Amino acid sequence: MDGVTNRQRSSHAKGTTLIELMIVVVILGILAAIATIGYKRYVARSRLSEANAMLAELSAKEQLYFMDIGAFVPARADNNLTQPSPDEAATAFIPANPTAANFESARTPQLVPNPQPNGWSQIGLRPRWNQLYCTYLVNAGGANQPAQGGIGSQLWSTTPIVPWYYAVAACNLNTANDSQIPAGLPSNATFLVVTSASPGLITINDGN
After folding, report:
1. pTM of this prediction?
2. Which of 200, 199, 181, 201 lies closest to 190, judged by CA?
């Protein structure tokens, strides 16, 4: 009788251990999911901090250049300094083309080009980092010249009567598709913008 009882106890103990193991696996899965979400939010905050600093620097340099020369400068990877600045092109963003494969969820930082594009050198921009997660574009124009491009046309409903610029940071924050993203640029990018008309930060296609 005692032998049967011992076997029942042993079987019961093994069953309890299996259930406990399953519970542990489920708990670990939940913790891993929470950690993944937290990490993505941390990465997003880091990239937004970089973008805020870079846009502030770009804005300050443009304002100083305007005080000396009386004009704003397009800062584009394609070195196109014509005004009014051309339509936004993916290849005009610095330091990396936002349509490239490395702009997906596993995007790695891109080296700041050396030598720097003409626009960056002209306004005296020297990024504080050697690598950047976001990629940047400044478009500019003179008085009574329309702001072209998908982003530019959203910022001014009418043609500006004074010289203008807008600086754009394109960052990968794992965002959803959004109809506001200009054609040719990735739908998983968050665009942060500062303009000569307003010191505030404008967000297009906010990250989730």
Report:
1. 0.74
2. 181
